Amino acid sequence: MNKLDPNIAKELEARLALATKDDTARGLFFNGVVSAVRTMGGDAAVERCLAASGETRFIDFFNYPVSAFLRMSFTAAQMMGPEHGGFDGALRRMGVVATTDFLSSAAGKTLLLLASDSPKRLVGNLHSGYRAAVSYGERAVKWTGDTSGVFTMKRDFMPPAYHEGTLQAVIEAVGGKQVQVHGRQTGPLDTEYTLSWQ
């Protein structure tokens, strides 16, 4: 399987068309995809993903073009999809891995420290975590209860499934149980996520 499924390729092209050279993400997110792919698909799969990105390796706190991240992630999600609940299931898994990697970084540890084991406090501070990790987009939360809310992302390049994994992993990292995250796209790069936990 060397080419992307036509529907996946079409979505990728639409997202790439909206990216500029100033839209960047930290290398640790790229490395999260590489580590997920290595675990699930081996070195040959890693080589294909790196080729799709146009890079040979990533340094965690360097910035790389989001277009490279999109190409690599879409390639990886299609390759891993059959074993992980399809394209969206693989994207969700990559979101979990990327979050785990970010939370073990200095910026992530600071975010966890500020949260003091409170999912609500952590979600409330996520906009600053995203600012440390990517150069683009706006994020905000509107609370609908003590353990529920709507997290909005404007001008974020990854499909909703990726951030469903990200948000679930963040809430679970500070003790949230029975976490539910459902994304609904509201524009080409805009999504609302309903969140709840116990």
Protein described:
The radius of gyration is 16 Å and the shape is globular. 56% of the residues lie in helices and 18% in strands. The longest helix has 27 residues, at 27-53. α3 packs across α4 (86-103) and α5 (106-115) runs antiparallel to α6. The chain is α+β, with helices and mostly antiparallel strands and 198 residues long. The protein is built from 7 helices and 6 strands, in the order αβαβααααββαββ.
- Work out the number of β strands: 6
The class by helix and strand makeup works out as: alpha+beta
Order of helical and strand elements = HEHEHHHHEEHEE
**Which range best describes the helical content: under 10%, 10-25%, 25-40%, 40-55%, 55-70% or over 70%?**
55-70%
Span of the ends, CA to CA: 41 Å
Biggest sheet details: 4 strands, antiparallel
Q: Kindly report the spatial arrangement of strands forming the biggest sheet.
A: 3-4-6-5
Radius of gyration: 16 Å
Report low-confidence residues grouped into runs of 5 or more. Answer: none
For this entry, what is the oligomeric state of its chains?
single chain
**What overall form do the CA principal axes indicate?**
globular
By DSSP (H or I, 4+ residues per run), the number of helices equals 7
Mean pLDDT: 93
Tell me the fraction of residues in β-strands, as a range: 15-25%
